[in-house]
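Below: protein 1.
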Amino acid sequence: MSSRATAFKMNNTFVRPEMFYISGLQDMPFVNYFYIFLVVVYILTMFSNIFVIVLIYLEQTLHSPKYFAVSQLAFADLCATTAVIPKVIDTFLFNSNFIRYDECLANMFFVHCFTAVQSLSLAILAYDRLLAICFPLQYHSINTNSRMMLIIFSVWLFTAVVIFVTVILITRLSFCKSTVINSYFCDHGPVYRLACNDTSLNFIMAFTNIVLFLFVSLAFILFTYLAIGLALLKIATSEGRQKALKTCTSHIILVAVFYIPLAVTYLMEQMHMSNSNARILNNLLSATVPPILNPVIYTLKTEEMMKSITKYVKRKQGNDGKIRTIKVLAQ
């Protein structure tokens, strides 16, 4: 037992460190090139997700519950990427590994909150596809724009409350051991495990978060696709089945891209097959790659989005042509 831990037990002293040290990736060759790669990923992620949000906002044909959910996912991706990459670049590329206690808690809240919303956003899209395919005649009466907006608002509120409680429970912990966080940000698990006093409530909240925002969300998505699969079997023609399934392919790809890396990391940790660098690298890529792929997949794999882009480009070209004609006539 360390001397600080012994002192804590003897004196029952509450220790709140002024700063934590984020260790990040250790002894990896060419790691700075990886951080520069993340800068490129961040720029492309910002551009592509803002493009999707603006396109949905401008095109009246996309003002539907499905595309409100798509724009909500794009916004969650923007927030999650902004919470992760700029801080990672500042921490490791510019050697600012120390982070103040309050800033650490804020970083913990925003990263976990936005990641949880990303997961629930995929569940919202699954709910939309379930209604569209299993209840096509009642879809527009059940899934109205206002109802979808209410669902989205409820998801944000619920997630913020749960994550806030999770983070605020960190303030009851005394850190008399190491203050080195073995992660790429102020990760909840690595932080609360550094404490000397009772962490049972923190463990319960960590387990609750994993169940709520990972397993329950994924189980709901799998249930919706089981129901969708059964509904597709009832469609008489193969052409009708393919058309219905085509509307789901984008979402299936997004689910695979988001959940498979997280599931692999979780299983490897449970089986004690993951070293520190592998876990951090996989978690970092899981947090940064899906947000750049989501808008690309939805744009290229969704017929309505491609039509809207084509229509917008043609309208823009037509407006530019009119402006040039007016200038020529004016001269």
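Below: protein 2.
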Amino acid sequence: MPQLVLLHGRVWAALLGQLLRSPRVVCIRAVHSQSQVAEAVLTSQLKPHQEKSNLVIKTPKGTRDLSPEQIVVREKILDVIVSCFKRHGAKGLDTPAFELKDMLTEKYGEDSGLIYDLKDQGGELLSLRYDLTVPFARYMAMNKLKKMKRYHVGKVWRRESPTVVQGRYREFCQCDFDIAGHFDPMIPDAECLKIMCEILSGLQLGDFLIKVNDRRILDGMFAICGVPESKFRTTCSSIDKLDKISWKEVRHEMVAQKGLAPEVADRIGDYVQCHGGLSLVEQMFQDPGLSQSKQALEGLRDLKLLYEYLTLFGIAEKISFDLSLARGLDYYTGVIYEAVLLQSPAEAEEEPLNVGSVAAGGRYDELVGMFNPKGHKVPCVGLSIGVERIFSIVEQRMKTFGEKIRTTETQVFVATPQKNFLQERLKLISELWDAGIKAELLYKNNPKLLTQLHYCENTGIPLVVIIGEQELKEGVLKLRSVASREEVAIKRENLVAEIQKRLFKS
């Protein structure tokens, strides 16, 4: 028998109104009783909950959460990077996560298709920032600045196919350093390369090499090889893939997709296989083709001067002049560079991790002018550190060698062996916090002492302050070293000074 449901008139009206408003009601049949209406409303309310059971809980493709352990590792990496930027006199800067779409278009060449566009929700067409360089150039032009040395740490977004194993994501963090302004040639450029060396050495990633080239040399090379000027940038984009795919595949792309003649591609192939040091720069001055290109000669002269400064900085042996280096972004105008890691024999037990370049950059003298109505140029040079790729390497090495990570920085734990001492513990921990000491306690009225000591050992807290009836009576506290398990009695008024002394020694 159907169950009889009795409803008050107002409840009946409310249920009927809810049924009529429900987006899940496609049609309304004749309903003969209040019980049928109630059943229909309850069914419509239950459906969303039933559907939630099929929900797949995951992060969006190409993104990830960072655990507390991973945050610790990332912060250490960022500290090395930002400390170096500050050591070289850079000021911090931040820009919005999204820009007007017009600000980003026609700045990245073929990579423009990887920009994330946002739905128009406020009367403006917006896009998530693709890198930190274009927003910096926009900032310089908008504020009419002629000179600045800045660093910027922030997330960027690229709608590409992610390769998580190689540290390639759709959302990732970049650390940029840039020098904007009119200066004598190659001094800022040399400092950027010096910064890259300092950071990669400081992160202890192993041996590395920084490849350098110049867009003017590339353009001169394209011209003498027979590449039409209209295809300089798209050819550059193909050559930029040489660190990921073979020359045979790049040649096929240039001929089949970019429309270059096979003999033109072959002439380019003869050049892009050349790499070396200052001697190769000297050799290219004598090259029958490049020596006829005014652009190429300008680039070669700057590279020769750059090597002089790099020698003075003591890093020339880390720099390789590589004619295959292209850097696909359209805004580069002069010297370009890219750092790659070299796996040493000592790392043979580690599984090889091909992450590509871990840092890159170059000169972009015309980008600021693109945002200026009058076209006033501000020469710029900069670099970007690939945090995600470096993080992937560090994380893998830590797993390989089983390194344990402390996820907190707690220095002191406040404990008691007796019951009803919560108030005394709270007063004591407040004193430590007020003194700037990182301290913790268990959120229980009467925790067992063994439980408290085990917590300290498991989380790596170095010191324990113990307060009990005897200590309270004598006006002292016990200070225990977790590692050695040694305890000493200290007057309460001397506790902060004693803790600070011990922490300073450690």
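Residues 1-8, 22-33, 344-348 have pLDDT under 50 and may be disordered.
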